[in-house]
Amino acid sequence: MARDWSSATMAKARYSRLQGKKWSSSTFTLVLSMLLMLSIVLLVLLALGIFSLPVGSHDSQPPNDLASFRRKIVVEIDDGLGERGEQWTEVLSWEPRAFIYHNFLSKEECEYLISLAKPHMVKSTVVDSKTGQSTDSRVRTSSGMFLKRGRDKIIRDIEKRIADFTFIPVEHGEGLQVLHYEVGQKYEPHYDYFLDEFNTKNGGQRIATVLMYLSDVEEGGETVFPTAQANFSAVPWWNELSDCGKGGLSVKPKMGDALLFWSMRPDATLDPSSLHGGCPVIRGNKWSSTKWMHVDEYKV
């Protein structure tokens, strides 16, 4: 009887070991099959381009270098005339809010705007706050003309670029105004916003201005903010400024650059620190183009 019990126990032990081996073998086969299936799926995704493996590069930018990413996007999505240099945005002031977009226009775009405007230039005027009509004034001695919004593809490209830069819809902008300042010509400090109801009937208040420089100026012609809350002499071009330019926070004209400044604060109140003017040209010629942006849609 003892022998029968011992034999039965040994038989059970052998059966358990066999079962364990079978279980281990089945588990291994299942895992191997799953890995094989996963490998096949990955190969299919790679072949279809749905999945890609990261590839290191010595020239790649650090993950937090958003500036180079922004510049790359601006160049790739833009469809303008000619090639622009490296683009970046520089903070000029926070009171008023003012920013310089370097190489906003290409040389070809600057020349194109000048060529369109040149045959139609007339003496610049200012808007009468009571009647809303344009009148002559000694505070503005340049010549200029307007290009209708959306006039052609090149202008539409520029206007789209302005909308992307300002986050203000194209439909909220007036037509491009092209201006020419010869030696001695200037624009005394003024506001771009209105203090009357007549001029705000169409589009509401002017909220921001984009001033694009279409040419370099040998001397003078700066855009000056005489009441800006900033260290005027901190700009790197301080020693190149005229006496007028040193009377406030100033920007020296450079072909292709664009100056964006806001006439209204984020709380929708008018910003008196946006007072600005065009210094007299001392040597050379100054060509520029202005885009005024409104709070609401501007009907043309």
UniProtKB/TrEMBL annotation:
Keyword list (alphabetical) reads:
Dioxygenase, Endoplasmic reticulum, Glycoprotein, Iron, Membrane, Metal-binding, Oxidoreductase, Signal-anchor, Transmembrane, Transmembrane helix
Q: Which GO terms describe its molecular function?
A: iron ion binding; L-ascorbic acid binding; procollagen-proline 4-dioxygenase activity
Instruction: Give the matching SMART domains.
Output: P4Hc (SM00702)
Q: What PROSITE patterns does UniProt report for this protein, alphabetically? A: FE2OG_OXY
Domain Fe2OG dioxygenase intervals: 172-295
The EC designation for this entry is 1.14.11.2
- Annotated compartments: Endoplasmic reticulum membrane
The top EC class, named as a word, is oxidoreductase
A GO CC annotation recorded here is:
endoplasmic reticulum membrane
The family assignment reads: Belongs to the P4HA family.
- Its recorded name reads procollagen-proline 4-dioxygenase
Q: Which organism is it from?
A: Liquidambar formosana
